[in-house]
Structure to design on (501 residues):
C-alpha cells in the first residue's frame, strides 16, 4: 500500500495539471447576450489590467454606456478589486467619453487612496480645478486620511471643510470616529459624537453604532446602554439588526447571557428575511451562547429565505457547529455544500479541519486533507502544518515529518507560508538522530524553499553524516562560509564523531 506521502505526491501532481489554467473562484450565471459588464466581471484575477479589454470593446465598435461603466466600478469596489475599479475610472477620464463631475472625481480619488495610498490621493486632489473641490472631493480625501490613520491630517482637513462652510454629513464625523477606533482611542469617540451634535449634524445609525462600540470595548456597559437608549429615542432612527447584534456581542463578552439573548431576539425581529449577512451574525452569536437549537432554526430560515447560500454562509455555519462541538453535523453540512454547485473554496472544508486539530483529532484532519486532494483540489500548506504540529504534540514524529513534507511541497503555491519553527527544529533534531542521511538531505532541500540554511539544519546534517560515517569537514567549511559560528551544541555533536571512532 502506498504511504500517505506517496499518495500526496500523486495528488499534488494531478492538482498542478488541473490548475495550469486560470481558476475562477466565484459563482456566475452565464448570460446569452454579451455586455461589457459580462465581459469584465469574470476577470477575477485582481492583477489583470482591464484597460486592454475596454480598448478592444471600443475598437470593435461596441457602445460604451456611462451607466454600465459606473455599475462595473461599483461592482469592482464591492469585491475589493480597487486597482481594477481605478483602471476603469481612469480610462473613462482619459478617454473623455464622459465629463467628470465632482462625484466621479470623488470616486476616483477614493480609489486612488485605496490602491496607492493617501499621498497619491493628495496629488490628484491638488490637481483638481477649484470648482471641482467640493464637499464630495474634500470628503473623499478625508476618508483616505482617516482610513490610513493619519490623525493630524484628518483633523486639519476636517477643520478646512468647516472653514469653507461645507454642509457636513454624518459620514464626515463617522470617518473621524472610525479613525479614533482604529488607533484604539476609543475614549475620544463619544467626544466626536458630541461635537457632531453641537455642529448641527444629526448622528445616523453608524454614528451611534461606532459610539456604542467605543463603550463596549472599554467594558463600560452602562455607557453603552445610555447611548443605545438615546439612539432608540430618536424618531428619525430606524433601529436595525446590526446595532442590536453589536450590543448582544458585548453582553456575551461581559457574561450577561440573559441580556445577550434578549437583544439577539430584537435583532432577529428587525432582520430582512433575505439578509444572509444578518443571519450569519445571529447564528454565530447564538453559537457563542451555546444555543444549538437556535443556530439550526436560523440556518433553516436562512436557507429557505435567501435565494441561495454562498460559501461565506456555509463557512459561518460550519464554524458555529464546530464551536458547538457538533463535528458530525458539520461533516453532513460539508457534503451538502459539496453538492450545492458553489465554486470550490478550501476555506469551507478547512473550517472542519481546524476543528479536528483543535480537538486533537489529527488522523481525521489528515484524512480530510487527503480527501480534498483526491477530489483534485489543493489545500493550503498551513493546514498540513497544523496537522504536523499536532502529530508532533502527540509524539508521532514520523507522521509529523510526513505532513510537514506535504506542507513544504505546497509552499510553491503559497509563498507567504512560514512553517512553525518549533516543529521544524524538532523534526530536524529527530531526523539527525534517527533518520538516514538521505532523509535528512531531502528534508533540508525542501526547507530551502522557505528558509535560508541555518544552524539547526547544519546540526541535523552533521548528525546524519557522523552516523553514516561521512566526513563533516565540508559541512564545517560551509557553516563558516554562511557565517554560522560553532556553538556548544556543535561541539557536542562533533564529540559524537570521536565517540564513534
Amino acid at each position: 500500500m502506498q504511504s500517505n506521502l506517496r499518495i500526496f505526491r500523486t495528488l499534488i501532481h494531478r492538482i498542478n495539471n488541473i490548475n495550469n489554467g486560470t481558476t475562477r473562484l466565484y459563482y456566475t450565471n452565464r448570460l446569452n447576450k454579451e455586455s461589457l459588464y459580462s465581459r469584465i466581471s469574470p476577470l477575477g484575477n485582481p492583477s489583470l489590467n482591464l484597460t486592454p479589454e475596454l480598448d478592444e470593446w471600443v475598437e470593435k465598435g461596441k457602445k460604451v454606456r456611462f451607466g454600465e461603466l459606473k455599475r462595473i466600478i461599483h461592482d469592482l469596489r464591492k469585491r475589493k478589486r480597487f486597482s481594477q475599479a481605478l483602471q476603469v475610472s481612469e480610462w473613462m477620464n482619459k478617454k473623455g467619453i464622459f465629463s467628470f463631475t465632482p462625484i466621479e472625481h470623488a470616486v476616483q480619488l477614493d480609489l486612488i487612496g485605496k490602491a496607492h495610498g493617501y499621498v497619491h490621493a493628495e496629488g490628484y486632489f491638488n490637481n483638481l480645478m477649484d470648482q471641482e473641490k467640493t464637499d464630495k472631493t474634500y470628503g473623499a480625501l478625508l476618508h483616505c486620511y482617516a482610513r490610513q490613520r493619519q490623525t493630524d491630517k484628518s483633523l486639519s482637513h476636517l477643520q478646512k471643510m468647516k472653514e469653507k462652510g461645507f454642509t457636513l454629513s454624518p459620514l464626515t464625523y463617522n470617518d473621524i470616529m472610525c479613525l479614533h477606533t482604529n488607533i484604539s482611542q476609543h475614549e475620544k469617540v463619544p467626544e466626536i459624537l458630541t461635537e457632531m451634535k453641537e455642529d448641527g449634524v444629526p448622528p445616523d445609525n453608524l454614528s451611534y453604532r461606532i459610539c456604542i462600540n467605543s463603550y463596549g470595548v472599554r467594558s463600560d456597559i452602562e455607557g453603552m446602554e445610555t447611548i443605545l437608549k438615546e439612539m432608540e429615542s430618536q424618531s428619525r432612527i430606524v433601529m436595525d439588526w446590526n446595532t442590536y447584534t453589536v450590543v448582544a456581542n458585548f453582553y456575551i463578552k461581559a457574561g450577561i447571557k440573559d441580556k445577550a439573548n434578549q437583544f439577539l431576539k430584537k435583532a432577529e425581529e428587525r432582520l430582512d428575511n433575505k439578509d444572509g449577512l444578518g443571519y450569519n451574525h445571529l447564528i454565530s452569536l447564538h453559537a457563542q451562547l451555546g444555543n444549538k437549537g437556535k443556530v439550526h432554526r436560523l440556518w433553516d430560515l436562512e436557507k429557505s429565505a435567501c435565494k441561495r447560500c454562498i460559501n461565506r454562509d456555509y463557512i459561518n455555519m460550519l464554524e458555529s457547529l464546530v464551536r458547538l462541538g457538533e463535528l458530525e453535523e458539520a461533516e453532513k453540512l460539508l457534503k451538502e455544500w459539496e453538492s450545492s454547485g458553489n465554486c470550490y473554496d478550501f476555506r469551507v472544508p478547512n473550517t472542519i479541519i481546524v476543528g479536528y486539530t483543535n480537538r486533537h483529532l489529527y488522523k481525521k484532519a489528515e484524512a480530510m486533507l487527503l480527501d480534498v486532494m483526491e477530489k483534485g483540489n489543493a489545500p493550503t500548506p498551513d493546514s498540513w502544518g497544523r496537522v504536523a504540529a499536532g502529530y508532533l504534540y502527540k509524539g508521532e514524529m514520523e507522521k509529523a515529518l510526513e505532513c510537514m513534507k506535504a506542507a513544504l511541497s505546497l509552499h510553491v503555491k503559497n509563498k507567504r507560508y512560514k512553517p512553525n519553527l518549533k516543529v521544524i527544529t524538532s523534526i530536524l533534531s529527530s531526523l539527525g538522530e534517527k533518520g538516514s542521511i538521505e532523509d535528512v538531505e531531502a528534508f533540508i532541500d525542501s526547507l530551502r524553499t522557505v528558509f535560508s540554511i541555518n544552524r539547526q539544519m547544519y546540526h541535523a546534517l552533521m548528525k546524519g553524516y557522523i552516523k553514516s560515517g561521512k566526513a563533516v569537514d565540508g559541512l564545517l567549511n560551509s557553516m563558516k562560509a554562511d557565517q554560522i559560528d560553532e556553538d556548544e551544541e556543535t561541539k557536542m555533536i562533533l564529540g559524537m564523531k570521536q565517540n564513534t571512532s
Confidence is low (pLDDT under 50) at residues 18-31. Residues 322 and 355 are 6 Å apart (CA to CA).
